[in-house]
Write a structure and sequence with these properties.
By secondary structure, this protein is an alpha/beta fold. It is built from 13 helices and 39 strands. The strands form ten sheets. The chain has a nine-stranded parallel β-sheet with strand order 17-16-15-13-11-3-2-1-18. It has a six-stranded antiparallel β-sheet with strand order 19-26-27-32-29-30, covered by helices on one side. A five-stranded parallel β-sheet has the order 21-20-22-23-24. The two termini are about 30 Å apart. About 0% of the residues have low confidence.
């Protein structure tokens, strides 16, 4: 769980209490995040008392068997009072002025601290009829001189300017500018001021990883050494053509692509790689959410140790797919996601079923470690509901459903462990056309500096959905990744919306076809002989014509998804129903398999086994998942036939008690909110009845019935998708804990509601 420390104002008794509750619930660990105060702060961020609290929490986490990670800064993005003007994030700023024919000499002055006039150009045209091209005007001795010419003319001025962005949601003592992520000196200054002090206080053996949260350096597209670095990497001087960032023309596409590619490289080398080398020298691993601004690519992840995404939606391309693809390409066996951001917003409305349903979406995107967003530190005596973070479900022990958390945590832990075994199986590579993205991104083009966001906008959403509905899985791939990717790895490569293919990538695609693979072009105008044309609407038949589905489903339900791992000669499939209706279907694996086992991730039990030659019938209830293990040999554990079942109603009489109140008779079904005085009741109630099952030989189950389907409220789609919320309401509200003759038998918190 991400563990928010507000202020930072913490006490050791509350740290001890909360860590113990996390361990008791089966959580794997904490990632400490230091954010804005919710009461007068008792310590400053980075102070000795603050660092002592960190050390105490790390030692208690170790004693409790919890992993302990540190965020390398307060709030996001990295920065603070130690970042001086020369180390702060910068951006380009453009101004246009219309002038007459006469000679003009203007002193260069700064209108704001940090502003610097970089370039000036003059061109024939007016503000209403802009110039098509410009000539550079010299700036010397603090003066801009424009010789006489014909009118009207337009002067285009390019300034370097501080973005002015301050650290978002900063703790007390951490306020200050966001650092320049393209400058190694700025990164090193931050690591020295913040990271070194943290790891001096908390030794490496207590730290699982150090972490960089969201890249949200808004508008940052300049750094002082950019002209020099651009010339060295691209082979020409950008300053005579820099105006092409904002003026269309024959050189604009090349200049824009080269410009943003250079920014991406500077981010990789001067931020990510610097952080990783620093972490390695301190004996810890560096984990990053590597998407956003600066314009990080899929392959930018390769400079870090551990990769993290966020955002659910297994039929789309969220940042989780950005991260998991990089992990598959660059050999990282564990890849994490920030999970449950905004889940069933606002706070305290999320249910265990919401948590489970969104987790499935991450797992279907190739994730195998979930970082919960999150656990708000809250003093035991905080008034009202206590403290909670503005952008999250408050997933802690204040929720009435918390007694079910150990079962939910065990369920997710089993699946995350399982999905780290062996190797991922993906038959399709979806090419991310970075050259096109770099050429069209940027504020001047009405876009962003976020490569993931621009790819999400450019590649039709029908493309990833078609791949999954064809019974296949995919990795995103970009030009840099081809250097470490065999051409025979993927059986199909989809090139979507590309207008330019670099020569090295074209050569790699030729080798794909030579090895027997297919290259499908979807809405692409790039000239590449041998590509087969396909439309987004016709992609499913094009894919099934090129290769057999990895897992054939009949009938094919659009809400049923799967992830495939190969462990030697064993094929492991995680299969999930992401929808609100029960679905029955049959599956057939592509490889010749003789036997199967069906594993239940809730109980950890093998629930069914048998021959797989004729297909395997499955029934998945809403938001239910299962595991299929397919082998080449017949299963040695065959399921016993299920005999006829008898049912009888638990017709009562029933009694209900709320807390310490005396029990009273009640008729079921019973809705708390309909009772006088309990319209807003949140908590628990105990329902009691008796039944004689002395004539029953064997297992007995209690079935609470099916859930009601209800469409969730309208939701806005943002960076991480809409606020996740299941579209059902269960027959027990959120959770039922069942006791029979004083013996705990388990919980019902998800369909099927059966214990």
């Amino acid at each position: 769980m991400r563990w928010w420390w507000f202020g930072p104002s913490v006490t050791r008794p509350d740290l001890e209490r909360q860590l113990t509750r996390m361990a008791d619930a089966g959580l794997g660990g904490v990632e400490v995040a230091y954010v804005y105060p919710l009461a007068p702060a008792t310590t400053d961020f980075g102070s000795d008392p603050f660092l002592a609290h960190l050390r105490f929490a790390a030692e208690r986490a170790r004693d409790l068997g919890l992993r302990f990670s540190l965020t390398l800064g307060s709030g996001w993005s990295f920065g603070g009072p130690h970042i001086t003007i020369d180390l702060a994030a910068q951006q380009l700023h453009w101004e246009r002025r219309e002038i007459g024919p006469g000679r003009l000499e203007v002193p260069v002055v700064s209108s704001w601290p940090g502003d610097e006039l970089l370039v000036a150009y003059v061109g024939a045209g007016s503000l209403q009829e802009p110039a098509a091209s410009y000539e550079r005007v010299p700036i010397a001795d603090g003066r801009l001189t424009i010789e006489a010419g014909t009118a009207p003319r337009t002067v285009l001025l390019g300034y370097a300017r501080l973005t002015g962005q301050q650290v978002k949601r900063a703790a007390v003592g951490a306020e200050g500018p966001v650092l320049d992520h393209y400058a190694a000196a700025a990164t090193r200054a931050h690591l020295h001021a913040v990271g070194d002090r943290m790891l001096d206080a908390v030794p490496a053996e207590l730290v699982d990883s150090v972490f960089c949260d969201s890249l949200e350096v808004y508008g940052a597209d300049w750094t002082p050494r950019l002209p020099e670095e651009f010339a060295r990497r691209r082979g020409y001087d950008m300053l005579p053509l820099l105006y092409r960032l904002v003026v269309d023309g024959p050189d604009a596409t090349r200049l824009r692509a080269d410009y943003h590619r250079t920014l991406a490289e500077l981010y990789e080398e001067n931020f990510v790689a610097v952080c990783q080398r620093w972490a390695a020298a301190r004996g810890v691993s560096f984990r990053i959410q590597g998407y956003g601004t600066p314009p990080a690519t899929v392959s930018s992840y390769r400079f870090a140790d551990r990769f993290e995404g966020e955002g659910w939606g297994w039929l789309r391309i969220p940042p989780t797919r950005w991260a998991s693809s990089a992990a598959h390409l660059y050999g990282r066996s564990v890849v994490s996601a920030e999970a449950w951001t905004w889940v069933h917003s606002p706070s305290f409305r999320a249910t265990p079923l919401d948590v489970k349903g969104e987790a499935h979406e991450h797992l279907l995107n190739g994730i195998n470690e979930l970082i919960g967003h999150g656990w708000p530190y809250s003093p035991a005596d905080a008034p009202g509901l206590g403290w909670f973070f503005y952008a999250a479900g408050a997933l802690d022990d204040r929720n009435p459903w918390w007694p079910a958390m150990p079962q939910l945590a065990g369920y997710l832990s089993r699946l995350c462990w399982l999905l780290r075994q062996g190797e991922p199986v993906a038959d399709v590579a979806l090419y991310v056309p970075n050259d096109d993205l770099f050429a069209t991104m940027g504020r001047a083009q009405g876009g962003s500096l976020d490569t993931w966001r621009e790819a999400h906008r450019r590649i039709p959403s029908e493309v990833p959905a078609a791949i999954r509905r064809a019974g296949l899985d995919y990795d995103l791939i970009d030009d840099e990744a081809l250097e470490v990717t065999e051409a025979a790895r993927y059986r199909v490569v989809i090139v979507a919306t590309a207008t330019r293919i670099p020569p090295a990538t074209a050569d790699w695609l030729d080798r794909v076809r030579a090895s027997g693979g297919a290259v499908l072009a979807v809405d692409s105008s790039a000239d590449l002989p041998g590509m087969r044309e396909a439309t987004p609407e016709g992609l499913v038949p094009a894919l099934t014509a090129a290769l057999t589905p990895d897992l054939q489903m009949s009938p094919s339900w659009p809400e049923i998804g799967f992830v495939h791992r190969r462990c030697g000669d064993v094929e492991v499939f995680f299969v999930a129903n992401t929808g609100s209706w029960s679905r029955s279907f049959e599956v057939v694996g592509r490889t010749g398999v003789a036997g199967y086992e069906q594993w239940d991730p809730v109980s950890g039990q093998v629930v069914r086994a048998g021959a797989a030659t004729d297909g395997i019938g499955l029934v998945l209830h809403p938001y239910e998942a299962t595991v299929l293990v397919l082998t080449g040999a017949p299963s040695e554990r065959l399921s016993r036939p299920v005999g006829p079942q008898r049912t009888r109603p638990l017709s009562g009489p029933w009694q209900v008690a709320y807390g310490d109140e005396p029990a009273q008779p009640v008729d079921l079904p019973h809705i708390w909110e309909e009772q006088p005085g309990r319209e807003h009741y949140s908590g628990a109630a105990t329902y009691t009845t008796s039944i004689d099952v002395g004539d029953v030989d064997g297992a007995v189950s209690i079935d609470f019935g099916s859930c009601d389907v209800q469409e969730p409220a309208s939701r806005e789609d943002g960076l991480v998708g809409p606020s996740y919320q299941v579209a059902v309401r269960g027959p027990v509200g959120e959770v039922a804990q069942v006791r029979v003759n004083g013996i705990d038998c388990g919980f019902a918190w998800a369909p099927p509601y059966r214990v």
